[in-house]
Write a structure and sequence with these properties.
- With 192 residues, the chain is α/β, with parallel strands linked by helices.
- It has one domain: Rossmann fold (3-Layer(aba) Sandwich).
- The protein has 6 helices and 4 strands, in the order αβαβαβαβαα.
- Strands 2-1-3-4 form a 4-stranded parallel beta sheet, with helices on both faces.
- Helix 2 runs parallel beside helix 6 and helix 3 packs parallel to helix 4.
- The longest helix is centred in the last third of the chain and has 24 residues.
Length: 192
């Protein structure tokens, strides 16, 4: 794990400290993994890491959808978002000698973010944006890789589902999920 990167654990969220609905788990989640096909070796590692994270958490309802490239991830996520609890978006873009890298990276980031916000569907962002293939392989979760971004993206998607369910449950039962703010951004400790 890179310095400064958070360690995300499903157990940390499902066994929350205020003991509210500690029984929430991820075993019944419906999850789609949307994965690009470009850079097959890197993508095989990312996909294996995502599958491993979901399997380790007990998620069995997983649909894998392969699309041609990273640019196509957004439309696939948009199509699937209403049918699943979470999505894991996996792709890799390697810098070349043209502006194509910037266009694809921006389109994928903006598109996936838009889908997640518009549909309120957590999407684990596992899109590698690398200067060269060596950097991509080092993040792909392959033997000898320093990082496993496929596993991290799947774990982030599950952790976000749990965090949102915990907050929603707390709000429905009149418990505070965190400090409220007024419209100007100031903390409002007197709010119910």
């Amino acid at each position: 794990m890179k310095d400064g990167a958070p360690t995300i654990s499903i157990g940390d969220i499902s066994n929350n400290s205020d003991n509210s609905d500690a029984s929430i788990d991820v075993t019944g989640l419906r999850v789609a993994i949307v994965a690009a096909r470009w850079h097959a070796r890197v993508m095989d590692g990312l996909l294996a890491g995502a599958r491993r994270a979901l399997g380790d958490a007990g998620v069995t309802r997983v649909e894998v959808v392969r699309v041609p490239g990273t640019f196509e991830l957004s439309v696939a996520c948009a199509t699937l978002a209403e049918h699943v609890d979470a999505i894991v978006a996996l792709g890799v873009v390697i810098r070349g000698g043209t502006p194509h890298f910037e266009y694809v990276c921006q389109a994928a980031t903006t598109g996936i973010t838009d889908v997640s916000v518009r549909t309120a569907t957590p999407i684990g962002f596992g899109v590698l944006t690398c200067d060269d293939e060596e950097q991509a392989l080092d993040r792909a979760g392959l033997p000898g890789s320093a990082e496993d971004k496929g596993h991290e993206a799947a774990t982030a998607a599950m952790a976000t589902v749990l965090a949102l369910r915990t907050a929603t449950t707390a709000l429905l039962h009149g418990r505070r999920a965190g400090p409220r703010t007024d419209r100007g951004g100031a903390r409002n400790e007197a709010a119910p």
